[in-house]
Amino acid sequence: MRRTFFSFHYEPDVWRAWNVRNCWVIKPEEQSDRGFFDSSVFEASKKESDDSLKTFLREGLKNTSVTCVLAGTDTWSRRWVRYEIARSVIKGNGLLTVYIDGVKNKDGATVTKGADPLAQMGVYRTKNGIYLAEWKGGKWVKYDDYTLSIPEGELWFPAPKNTTVVQFSTHCMSYDFVAQNGRQNIDGWIETAAALAGR
């Protein structure tokens, strides 16, 4: 069974995300999702501590093979979306971006398209190993929420050769849910992401 973790900016995009998710889980015997947590649980974890929320999100990623980032306007800049992306890379999940700005919310409104979250993070090499980077304050900086090196053999894509940051979007596909008929095609997009990562 294909287990997919959906990562998204909760407050503005949860309605859009549910619409995407509900069209995907048509054959529950073949597909299941993670990442659709009750908001009260998510908010409680945020209030406890950063470490408790990190643990909560890592648990959510367990037993998944693909992480689908549902991108609205500001998803690319959200700390916890970035953490879910980082942990997905460390775990070896396939990754893809699906733009949901054109999906209407409960009031029938769409939003401005944002940047690709997978283009705002990447990896680079130093003499001490391979590290995660994020685009922050108009420049690439070492990723704050996971500072250990990543073993080269655990990456499913070619490792960076030097200190130049290689964005995850270089190796991952992105799609537009509305313009590319996501209702019919998201199954294939997720399977492609899984295949690219050898999952």
UniProtKB/TrEMBL annotation:
Residues 5-104 form the Thoeris protein ThsB TIR-like domain. SUPFAM superfamilies: Hypothetical protein MTH538. It holds the Pfam family ThsB_TIR. It comes from the Bacteria. InterPro entries: ThsB__TIR-like_domain, ThsB_TIR-like_sf. This is Thoeris protein ThsB TIR-like domain-containing protein.
